Amino acid sequence: MAAHGADAERLGSISRVTAERHGAIRVGSPAEMAQVARLFAGFGMHPVGFYDLRDASASSVPVVSTAFRPTDVDELARNPFRVFTSMLVTDDRRFFDAPTQERLEAFVAARELFSPEALALADRSVVEGGLDSDAAERFLALATASFALSTEPIDRAWYDHLEAISAVAADIGGVPATHINHLTPRVLDIDDLYARMSALGVTMIPEIQGPPRWEGPDVLLRQTSFRALAEPRTFREPDGTTASGELRVRFGEVEQRGIALTAAGRDLYDAMTAEADRRLADAPQGTTRVAVAAEVWREHLPRTETGLALAGLGFFRFRVAEPPAGSSTDVGSGATLATLLESGVLVAEPIVYEDFLPRSAAGIFQSNLTDEGSRDDDQLGTPYDLDRLSEVVGIAIADPTDLYGAQQAASLAEAEAALGHPVDTTPVPLAAAAAAQENAPA
Fold first, then answer.
1. I need a surface site. Which of 69, 92, 127, 303 has the fewest CB within 10 A?
2. What is the pLDDT of residue 434?
């Protein structure tokens, strides 16, 4: 705040950012995922986005995921919380043979993650649009208890069997309950955070995940993590006795959020990421991915928010500026977005990315694995996409791009009504956007 002044809060007020969190949980079956959806619906949190972490990492991470969060803009501003929820894909033969699948599914089916009372209160909250004070307190207590770290003994042989396949699978299907495995605060400057944590002696992930730090606008999501602490757990040995041990399953993560990208922007992001990977493979030893990616960003991405808006790469809310005394907002019915932004008639305010990136999520998971596990890529994986996971969840999973697009369209409609004429928002080529952004107000 001291270093950047008003610009520090451009992508989120300090009051919101300091309250903001996302948690992460893991479940073992479609039935458990459907129960999670019911529970979070009671808090006004809905599934948004589909993430397949199985192919996002070379390590064995056999899960598909969605995130539960408010979808209304005002509600999300009041309650900026998300829970990234992953489901074990037990029938994916790249990871689990038939006997392991059978035992996994039986183990998961025999446990109870959420009490019938908690689910009943969640359903009632949805139907009634909330709960009275006493019921709400009870619901909150039951829901919170569902995500506490279990103290029940863990079958050591079964856990070790799963851990040899995937530490993530062991954390899901080798224990009798689910738990919050990380709770992530948001910061305004993740590079400063990374440096300060490292200076304190905290072992951080080697590189910040997601887009690189560079001179232009922050986009999408940047994340870093630090190693899980060893926590005491009780194990049941093959002979039936119990013994004390340790597991590292709950780790620390921090995030910095940037501007949401359009479908075209995401395509460009994916292309830039692939280009950074290619260049890094040919770079001299010791070259960091962040340095290579920053070069790629400078070559391909507009250097200002205005450039992102004009090229149709980022999502923005548009509003008509208050005209100075004696001036007019009339710039003609054929005005383009570039003209309106350059003249200051329209103001573009960035829409913050509220969701996740599969490669970054897999990288965070991988950073806390003791080894890569095992996978047989000669086998076929179980197909999953947003529609299939929606069937599992029992609720249509929202596409984040559609949500951001609706926000931008609504703001543009209001601006056009205020101006009295439509605005031509046809994306301009990147070269033209780069030229126009030099003249637009900061």
1. 127
2. 56
Nearest-CA neighbor of 96 among 155, 49, 149, 29?
29
pLDDT digits (tens, 9 = 90+) for 8-39: 888 888 889 999 999 999 999 999 999 999 99
Q: pTM higher than 0.70, yes or no?
A: yes
Q: Report phi then psi at 355, rounded to 5.
A: -125, -150
Got the DSSP string for 327-364? Answer: ------TT-BHHHHHHHTSEEEEEPBP-S--HHHHHHH
Nearest residue to 254 via CA among 214, 201, 205: 205
Domains of the chain: which residue ranges?
Answer: 5-259+353-398, 267-349+406-437
Could you give the C-alpha distances from 26 to 43, 120, 145, 157, 173, in angstroms and in order?
A: 19, 22, 15, 21, 9
What does each C-alpha distance from 19 to 23, 257, 355 come to in angstroms? 13, 14, 17
pLDDT tens-digit profile of 208-264? 999 999 999 999 999 998 887 888 999 999 999 999 998 888 888 999 999 999 999
Q: For 5-259+353-398, CATH number?
A: 3.10.180.80
